[in-house]
Every structure is written in structure tokens, then in C-alpha cells.
Amino acid sequence: MGDCSTGAMHGIGGSIESSSSQNCTSYIEFLPVKEENTDIEESCIGKGLDSWGGFRLHYVWSDLSVRMRAKMVYEGEGGGYSEWCPKEHEVLQDHNIGAAKLVLSTNGFALPCYSDSAKVAYVLQGSGILGVVLPGQEEKLVAIRKGDAIALPVGVVTWWYNKDVTELEILFLGDTKTAVKLGSFTDFLLKGSNSNNLSCFSPEFIGRAWKSDKSVLKTLIGPHLARSIVKLNPGFEISEAELKDYRDGMLLNCEETAPSRFDTDGGGEILDLNTENLAIIGDIGLGASRATLNGNAAYYPEISVDPAIRVTYIIKGSGTVKVRDFGGFVTDRQIEAGELFVVPRLLSVCKIADPDGMEWFSIVCNENSNNYLTLGRWGLISDGSIPKSSSSPGSS
């Protein structure tokens, strides 16, 4: 939506006995890791491996230890738009990752636009209405709510509206390899702003093309406001008849869908989004997942072997993230709600929740990413299930 450096608009496992670091270390001592390597080694910061297993690798490791929070691009009466700036976090640009957040206040309306990048939208809070136009199809109006994950292909036109008192907050994560600027989304407005894509054409020309009268044209290509989020009049309403049931196939509510993986001893659960439960995600080349860890539970090391980049946003709670390469830990630090972190391809990651638990949403740059865990048979393993997995046939 904007240049984060200038503000210019382009358009729109079960419980651990204690949460101390000593106990967390003993909890994961099943891994082939030496305790003295759990801190970031100065020698590995900013370096990468020239080659490994036939792959050419390049990591900006120093960025993995930096707290990544969104920077406000625009804020007004109708809401605000913020993004994670690739100029401040080079790991985003290096791996073609875009991340942004839209917040709409009551009667806030994000004007129609299309993006240069494929992305997944996740509703963090509130409820509202999404207007979407897929290429060659008619407009669809969809009621959205907290927990919805929505796949948005390149070029799809969207607008967002919040009719409730609670703020509507939406996270966007995506792949920017097709973007105008790597590591950043650029949204092209169709109306309302000085930079909308119709403002350069004369009203007479647009009128002849669309056979519209002047009053409609004035709404379509003006007024020329330097913003992409507005506040509509309180009397504005969308009838229930217009909200057809387009949810199936377009989006999936992660809080209401049975998890793909879970820990039978209460450690937590994960829902994987792929072409099996959300077919449209195959059109954007991304996979996604939503996970919850209960207090002091651990999600054991996961490796993306495709290879694929994984981007994770912490929805609530806090904990520890450990990212390891082939020779030691790249980073081992605290993470908390509102933060983003990136795990480069072929590296393993482990997450340990604090006593209050942790919830996250992540994307992987492959719609059917082949991830596996380095310990046990389940995606989540608690202290109660470790003995079971150790004695089970075929467990690692």
C-alpha cells in the first residue's frame, strides 16, 4: 500500500514443570544440540553457507535476531494501514516476503484495489464484509469474522468494510516475487485517491467506455483524496440478501475447523491450510497454518524440506523461538504478540510457549509444503507423550 520509509501512498507438547530457561533446555535435550550452542554465536551473524547438498544458500542471519514490528504507513478516521518495511528488515526483501496489517474502525472502508502480489489474509479481530472480484467473474460480497483465512491471487480486486463497533484487524502475508518492489505489497486503487488508476482518464472518455452518467463518474474517479481508507456515513448498510454464501472454497475459518495435528496430552494444535481444505490456495502458490500452544508447551523442531520460506506472525501470547542451521543456532530469543519472524529455507525452528501460551499464523511459500518434525510421530509433543513416541514402532 505504501512506502514505509516515506509514508507516501501507492493506494491502498503439554506442560513443562517450569518456564525457566534451564527447564526449557532440558525439555529439548532430546535434540542433537549442545547446550553451549543455544546462544547466537557472533561468528555466524551476517554469514551464509555458500552451498549445501547442491543448493545455493544465502541468509541474512543478523535480521533473524531483530524484533520485527509493523510500521504505520497511513492512519485516519476510518482506520490505518501498517507494514513491515523491507528497508528496515532486509530478510523480507531477500526472500521476497511481504507483510502488512489493515485496521478498520467502525464504518471504516478500505477502497477497492488490486495488488501486485499473491497473499493470504487472516482476520485477527472483529468481523466485517469483504468485496472481491476474481478476474472474469462478478463481484462477491462475503461476511468475514475472526479466524478467517482468505487466499487472494494476484490481480484480484478487494474492498473491506467494518460495520461493527469492534475494530476489524486483518493481517496480510504473501510472496512478492511478482511485486513492483521486492518485500513490499503495492496496491493499485480503482477510485477515491489521487493515485487511483482511473484518475488520469477524462470523465468523457470513461463515460463513453462504461456508458455512465456524470454523477456515477464523479463517485468512480473522485473525489481526489490522498487516502485509501475512508469512514462511511453511519446510515450506510449492506442488505443480508447481498451477502451470499461464498465462504466455501474462498476462505476457511481456522478457529472453527478441526485441527490437522494435535497433542493428545493437551500441548496444543495446528491447522494446516492446503489445496485439500482450501482449493483456491493452489492459485497463489502459498500454504498456511494456524497454531496454538498451551502454557509451557513446546512445538518441536520443524524443517521445510521442499525447500520453502516460512513467515510467522505471533497473534497472542509469547514464548521462545530457536532457529538452527547445519552448524549451530542462528537465533534463540523471545517473541511476543505483534511480532513477525522469518525462517529461511532448509533451517529448523522450534517454538516454546511461555506460561500464558502462544498462538501464531504462518505462511510457507509452497501451497503443499512438505514439513516434518525431527522428534516423535506427532506435530506437537508434550512431556507426557515423549515416552510414548520413544517406544512406538517407527518413531524417530
UniProtKB/TrEMBL annotation:
SMART domains: Cupin_1 (SM00835)
Highest taxon listed in the record's lineage: Eukaryota
Classification via Pfam families: Cupin_1
Occurrences of domain Cupin type-1 (ranges): 62-218
Entry-linked InterPro entries: Cupin_1, RmlC-like_jellyroll, RmlC_Cupin_sf, Seed_Storage-Functional
Protein's UniProt name: 12S seed storage protein CRB-like
